[in-house]
Amino acid sequence: xxxxxxxxxxxxxxxxxxxxAAKDATEQALTKQFTQGEITQAIPEGRxxxxxxxxxxxxxGLPGTADDCTHTEGEKPPGWTRGGDTSYDYQGSTRxxxxxxxxxxxxxxxxxxxxxSGWTHRDGLTEHxxxxxxGDETAFLLNKESGAAYAxxxxxxxxxxxxxxxxxxxxxxxxxxxxxxxxRLQQVQSGKRPTATAxxxxxxxxxx
Length: 208
Prior knowledge:
This protein has helices at residues 2-25, 36-42, 109-120, 172-189, 198-207, and strands at 53-55, 62-63, 80-90, 99-106, 126-127, 137-142, 149-155, 158-164. By secondary structure, it is α+β, with helices and mostly antiparallel strands. Strands 1, 2, 3, 4, 5, 6, 7 and 8 form an 8-stranded antiparallel β-sheet that branches.
């Protein structure tokens, strides 16, 4: 009986350790140079986005461009290597509350940090209260004239931006999509299938 108890205790401890290691792996900063396919894989499908959103044109395989990562047309930020972008329509509308997602990969964390700063320090946008930190750096910004909401995060060498049109000052959908995308990239980096959804991240945010 004692031997059996020890065996069960040992097995339980091992399982807990494996679970903790898996959890820690998805919380690490993004340092992997992702392939284009891995970035595409990490982009949430419609059913993985916030409720009411579907992929625009049912396509998530669009490679990002360098100027997506600067908001300056034709400009390539130092160290940019690749990216991914897509859009989501809200309840069938291609205009109201449309959501855009940009993922930008850089060769070093320093280059990612520099580009991130340029993204988040722009005229016409005001800071919004931080709902929950995502990655190494996080910012939520509002365009009070248009009502658009922006959510930004940097994790290691990767920057992520989510923009929601006509958000009316509500950054909730932008936050949940930002967090889900970053978590999915972390899952890919750790060799796992990306399974995180915006609904999962909304639940986590409510528990914090």
